[in-house]
Design brief:
The complex is a heterodimer.
Chain A lengths: L3 E4 L2 E4 L4 E8 L5 E7 L6 E7 L2 E5 L6 E7 L2 E7 L7 E8 L1 E2 L2 E2 L3 E2 L3 E5 L1
Parallel strand pairs in A: 2-13
Antiparallel strand pairs in A: 1-3, 3-8, 4-5, 4-9, 5-6, 7-8, 9-12, 9-13, 10-11
Chain B lengths: L3 E2 L3 E5 L4 E7 L7 E6 L6 E6 L3 E5 L2 E6 L4 E6 L8 E8 L5 E3 L3 E6 L1
Parallel strand pairs in B: 2-11
Antiparallel strand pairs in B: 1-3, 3-8, 4-5, 4-9, 6-7, 7-8, 9-10, 9-11
The chains are: A mainly beta, B mainly beta.
Amino acid sequence: ETGVTQTPRHLVMGMTNKKSLKCEQHLGHNAMYWYKQSAKKPLELMFVYNFKEQTENNSVPSRFSPECPNSSHLFLHLHTLQPEDSALYLCASSSRDREYTGELFFGEGSRLTVL
Amino acid sequence: GQNIDQPTEMTATEGAIVQINCTYQTSGFNGLFWYQQHAGEAPTFLSYNVLDGLEEKGRFSSFLSRSKGYSYLLLKELQMKDSASYLCARLDSNYQLIWGAGTKLIIKP
C-alpha cells in the first residue's frame, strides 16, 4: 500500500470508446503525475500537476485528456485511442517545489488494452 | 542525449551479490534515483544519491560518481523476493526525472 490508489486496475476498450482512469492520493502531496509504461521502454512522463495546475504536458496526443479537480485526485480521460496506446498507465504523487522533486509514490497502475 | 543506460536483464544466485550499473548524461544533473518494481506492482523508491560515494541501506547500497556519469545499485545476500525490475532515473536541470528502461533481475535458487 503506497497511499496512491488507481482504478480500474484493468481496462479493455475499443477505439471508439470513451473511458477514464482515476487516481487518488492520501499522502498530502502537492504534485501528481501520469506516466505511460510500455514493455522494455523507459517510463514516459505524460502530465504533471502541481497544486492542481498543469505544469507539464510532454507532447501527449489530445486523445489523452487529464483533469485535476484538487490536489488529491487526478483523472486521465481517454477517447478514440489507438492500439499502440495499450500500456500500463501509472499515477504518482510527490512533494515538489521549484528546487526539489521528492521521491515519487506510485499507484499500481491501470493496464489498458485497446482493441 | 538524455539516455539512461542500464542492462536489460541480469541473473544471479540466491545468497550472492549483484551489481546493477547505470550510466547517464552528466550535464544538468540534480540527483540519481533507484526504484524497484515487482511484476504487476507499483515502482517503489529505493535510494537517492546527489553526492559522490556509497549510500548503504541494509542489504542494498547505491553508489554515485558524478564526474563519470555512473551509478550502481548493489544488492547483497540476495533473496528470491529480490527478483524484480530495477529502474534508474536521473533528475535533470528542470527537476524532471529521466528514466532508464529498467533492469530485470532474475534470482535463481
